[in-house]
Write a structure and sequence with these properties.
Number of helices: 5
Shape: elongated
Helix content: 40-55%
Strand content: under 5%
Order of helices and strands: HHHHH
Oligomer: single chain
Structural class: mainly alpha
Radius of gyration: 28 Å
Length: 117
């Protein structure tokens, strides 16, 4: 093996090690992402969404106009997948139908009357 080949191999190894070390260094957090900003965003996302009554009805998240059967409740749960049970009256009604039918077992009492105080 010639001296140029040894030198080239050493340079390749040094470059690889430098790339790995630069990739492992801590990254700077961009502006606007402080802990306080993240907490404020989380509070805003978890606070109840207050829509005026006409908007709730038009958005399809209002109280259902009839009692669901278990098949329809299952479809409503799929349609309202991104909604929270505690915030969407339509999903809450479907959730309760599936719990009462024994098709869904809640992890905790979200909708029980005793949990509301």
């Amino acid at each position: 093996m010639g001296s140029w080949q040894i030198f080239a191999a050493a340079m390749v190894m040094a470059g690889t090690m430098a790339g790995v070390l630069l990739g492992l260094r801590p990254q700077r957090i961009p502006h606007g992402r402080s802990v306080a900003d993240i907490r404020a965003r989380l509070v805003a996302e978890t606070s109840p969404l207050e829509l005026p009554a006409p908007l709730v009805l038009l958005s399809g998240h209002g109280e259902p106009d009839h009692a669901y059967d278990s098949t329809e409740a299952h479809r409503v749960m799929q349609d309202h997948l991104d909604c929270a049970v505690t915030r969407c009256p339509r999903k809450a009604a479907a959730y309760q139908v599936l719990v009462d039918a024994g098709k869904l077992k809640p992890r905790r009492a979200l909708m029980s009357p005793s949990s509301h105080g």
